[in-house]
Amino acid sequence: MKRAGLLTKERLKRYLFLIGLALLSGSMVACSAREKAEPLNDGGQVASVASSKETKERMTKMTIHLTIDGQKVAVQWEENQAVTALKEQLAKGEFSLDLSAYGGFEQVGSLGFTLPSQDQQQTAQSGDIMLYNSDHIVFFHGQNTWSYTKLGHIVDSHLATLLDKEQVSVRLTLEEIDD
């Protein structure tokens, strides 16, 4: 009788072990599949993921509008990683920046975030919009030679009157391109 009881305990231990092993491997497979299908953000929540192709296609149908002290100005934007990243930031919401005069030839302000840069030694001309140090935007109304990433060029004849001040306020928005 004791021997039959021991066999039952051994069988019970085996069954419990096998059930535990099955549950453990099942949960590992489920976690693995979830991570592949739905990546988690830093907070452990499921992050939405758009393919870079989808993002690129959507961003090519959008343009950045610039307003300086309440006046809309036309800009010819570059096609580079920094401008694409700026569009992605603007897709989250428009923003305004207060810029300060520097050196008598530019207005500069902190973006509050970084953009990818491809800095090159170049001479900025009046109307150029440059990225400096990955996190500052610079609007030129004169010229200066330094290492920048070009973002665009303002095509406005009133540029000097718009930027040749101690401070200016700029607003950037993202809007669909009219066909």
TrEMBL record:
Any Pfam family the entry gives: Cyclophil_like2
Domain Cyclophilin-like: 66-174
Record protein name field: Cyclophilin-like domain-containing protein
Organism expressing this protein natively: Streptococcus rupicaprae
